[in-house]
Design goal:
- The protein is mainly β and 675 residues long.
- The chain has 9 helices and 40 strands.
- The strands form 9 sheets. It has an 8-stranded mixed beta sheet, with no helix packed on it.
- It starts with a helix and ends in a 5-residue tail after the last helix.
Length: 675
């Protein structure tokens, strides 16, 4: 019986592994480009070996080519890697003429039996500067160094072309193979120029420099005027520096997009990149500092420039962690001439959108909606209302979900009668809303259960769990009061909120656990979950339209289901659609909600969070834009290898392959091609 159970578990594990085998981008460098330019972007991630192409949303921008980076041999012989390193510097110093590509390194293959094949090594002088940086980083990177992340080591190069009239703003990049498509990854198009930190800085030729010193070399840049975008990566212990040319009277604003590019790091604590900005004047004195921006981890540094000069802007992680996915882009501008200073609402939803549950409902005869602001520290707002008959009521505060920095707390008092608030009975207090944890799933086995928890927005941008909500059953009518305050006692001009008070009625929300689907044969499928509120136990069905037909739904108290969708029209590329779902409430009315597309993301070894997406994206693969290296290498291309004359096969062939040969005999004896 145990053997049968083990077999079932093994098959289930294999099925799960197959189902999850979708491309997983970890970072894009750079993460933003200027209009009217062509840029080569490096993608590092996992399960990208079969990628056939990439999509990018929006008009005026396209990914014309995807170039896979080969895996470089780590077990190369004693002369191979030094040979490639020397050849690399011959190319950088202009000692190699680009008129003819060498197909094999000279004499090396004749001397070493464990020479490893690599197309990029055999045709090194056919590579461009970016590809040479990738080769050099591998040559100078120790095997299994402490900060190595295997899930980020598979590289692709994307050739991104942006028209001069392309609209600046956020886009989404998707990778696709023959079976699936990756989750969307933020990518920006800007009208301002960029400075890109090199992917790798070539060290001096005369000696081998260990990895840490190589990666900590600052980019070779000249002082930059405003406005400018600065793009780079932070490695462990590294601080990146940029020189800005500023003028007296400018209102400098340096806004960082870092954590928002990749909100969750599965192997870091805290589970996201938390950057810090520092500004130094020409005398080396620190004149400005920025860590968080209100409750958002990505800092915004502001500084009124007192005199002309060269100023140095530095960025690092607050714990001096780092890695290739510690990617950032900094937009440096003059607030007086470009745009006003930021508010929290400007930044809260810059990368990730408002789900349907983030938007407060409109006032109705059965609902009280009050807007207010905690505009000074310590302020407490009072909202009075009347209960006409006993019943259960729902209280909900919208603050972080609207981009406000308010960390709200609600307190319910009453019945008031003629009593002042100071002596009225306190009935209930609601602070954070941990109840957004809505489903647990055993992804292990009965013998070894592994409980996977999906938590809505917990710790995510913009920290919706800080908005309190709750229900209370009133046993007698009368006048009541609910107060709104900031939990730590802060306040200011941006601390706005919306308070909703209504009779508790059953309702629901629907979430898709996948925002991007690859359509094949006009059909695709995804998994969805329903969040049942206030005792809702009815059926929920997905709605079809003229463009598509949806099959699937939730029955009874079911929480998860598989959904299939078929489209009535054909297209090529990626399209965005909005899906809705409907269910009948106990009062006979039909509630229709917008399905929120999400992508699960792991944070710091703990919960899986549902990261909201801008919409459902359905893609149809067209002609592949993948372009393998045009010089595949001598063995792969079928070219014959020059043998070693009278030497044995074990001298000129791989030792493993030599088992098939006549050991001890020369190549001229065991091969028909005598060379």
């Amino acid at each position: 019986m145990s053997n049968i159970r083990s077999a079932v578990v093994a098959v289930a594990g294999l099925f799960a592994a197959t189902a999850l085998a979708v491309p997983k981008p970890g970072y894009y460098h750079p993460s933003s480009v200027q209009v009217g330019t062509k840029t080569r972007v490096i993608m590092g991630g996992d399960l990208v070996g079969g990628v056939k192409g990439a999509w990018i949303t929006g008009e005026g921008v396209k990914i014309s080519r995807v170039v896979p980076v080969p895996g470089f041999p780590r077990a190369a012989g004693k002369t191979e890697r030094p040979f490639v390193r020397n050849w690399l510097y011959d190319i950088l110093e202009g000692k190699v003429k680009p008129t003819e590509h060498r197909k094999l390194p000279p004499e090396a293959t004749l001397k070493e039996t464990d020479w490893q094949e690599c197309a990029w090594w055999f045709y090194l002088d056919a590579l461009d500067n970016l590809e040479l940086q990738i080769v050099a980083r591998d040559l100078y990177t120790p095997e299994r160094y402490p900060q190595d992340t295997p899930a980020l080591n598979h590289l692709l190069i994307l050739d991104v072309e942006v028209d001069a009239n392309a609209k600046p703003g956020r886009r989404d990049i998707f990778l696709y193979d023959g079976n699936s498509a990756s989750a969307p990854h933020p990518f920006y198009v800007t009208k301002e120029p960029h400075v890109y930190e090199p992917f790798f800085v070539f060290p001096p030729r005369d000696k081998h420099i260990p990895l840490p010193r190589v990666l900590h070399l600052p980019p070779d840049i000249k002082p930059q005027p405003l406005p400018i975008h600065l793009d780079g990566q932070i490695w462990p212990g590294e601080t990146d520096s940029y020189v800005l040319r500023l003028e007296e009277g400018q209102q400098l604003v340096c806004s960082t997009i870092a954590r928002e590019l990749f909100p969750y790091l599965g192997d870091a604590v805290p589970g996201f990149f938390n950057p810090v900005l520092r500004l130094y004047d020409s005398r080396g004195k620190e004149v400005a500092f920025a860590d968080d921006f209100y409750y958002l981890p990505d800092p915004v540094l502001t500084y009124k420039v007192p005199e002309d000069g060269f100023y140095t802007l530095k960025i690092h992680d607050n714990l001096f962690r780092g890695g290739p996915n510690f990617e950032y882009t900094i937009f440096c501008r003059d607030a007086k001439t470009d745009r006003p200073l930021y508010s929290p609402k400007d930044r809260a939803f810059e990368c990730y959108p408002q789900p349907a549950s983030f938007i407060p409902p409109k006032a109705s005869p059965n609902m009280v909606v009050r807007k207010g602001s905690i505009d000074m520290p310590g302020r407490v707002d009072r909202h009075y209302f009347t209960i006409k008959e006993p019943g259960t009521w729902h209280f909900e505060l919208y603050a972080r979900r609207e981009g406000s920095p308010l960390d709200g707390v609600l307190q319910l008092y009453g019945p008031m009668g003629d009593l002042p608030l100071s002596v009225a009975p306190l009935l209930e207090t609601w602070d954070d809303n941990p109840g957004r944890l809505y489903t647990e799933k055993n992804v292990g086995s009965d013998d070894l259960p592994i409980i996977k928890k999906f938590m809505l927005y917990e710790g995510c941008i913009p920290q919706a769990e800080c908005d309190p909500s709750g229900i209370y059953t009133f046993k007698q009518p009368g006048k009541y009061c609910v107060t709104v305050a900031d939990q730590p006692g802060l306040g200011g001009e941006h601390y706005d909120y919306t308070l909703c008070i209504s009779p508790a009625e059953p309702s629901f929300e629907v979430f898709a656990l996948q925002s991007t689907c690859l359509v094949r044969g006009g059909r695709t499928s995804f998994r969805a979950c329903v969040l049942r509120k206030d005792g809702f136990t009815g059926d929920v069905t997905f709605n079809s339209t003229d463009a598509y037909e949806v099959n699937g739904g939730f029955s009874g108290e079911e929480l998860e289901t598989d959904v299939s969708i078929s489209f009535k029209n054909n297209w090529e590329g990626v399209k965005r659609f909005d899906l809705t779902a409907s269910g009948e409430l106990p009062n006979g009315k039909t509630l229709t909600v917008r399905v929120t597309p999400t992508d699960p993301a792991e944070q710091a070894f703990a919960y899986s969070h549902l990261l909201p997406a801008h919409g459902f994206y359905f893609g149809v693969a067209g002609e592949s834009t993948r372009e393998n290296f045009k010089y595949p290498g001598p063995h792969l291309s079928g070219e014959k290898v020059k043998h070693s004359g009278g030497k044995s096969c074990t001298s000129c062939h791989d030792k493993k392959a030599s088992k098939q040969h006549n050991k001890g005999k020369s190549c001229n004896e065991c091969h028909k091609d005598k060379e």
